[in-house]
Amino acid sequence: MEGSTLYYAPPSDQAFYVELIPECAGVVEILIFVIMLTVFRGVGREAKIKGALIFVPVIFVENIARLAVLYPMSVWLGVDAMWSVHSIIWQYGQFAILLLLFGIWYLTLASPGIREQLTHTPPLPRTSTKHPKCGKKTEKKP
Asked: Per-domain residue ranges for the chain?
């Protein structure tokens, strides 16, 4: 490995190299996930920060695991098949994983706060006044 270039020589003498760019570590996915958390309305700052602290490392580790699986795959299936699988995983799999993690965040950290806000709304105050003509008390809502 030189700098950010990884040289890989499988036993079949089809050596190839891969340049590790920031997307390999999941930088773009991490940014997208953090933006999704940030712009989601109705959730407190604490739930957003907890979500970032929990799920950003998960995204990073998932990307490293993806890279670790792709290299042995190139030995078994060949380099061309590995690149095909890589592009499918990168284009569709990463998006699906981000949506899955966002759903987990919503169900575990965000929705309890949203439910609490919806269920703990204070009732409207009722005012009691006497009707001017008959003297009966009437209640009216503002």
From this structure: 5-140
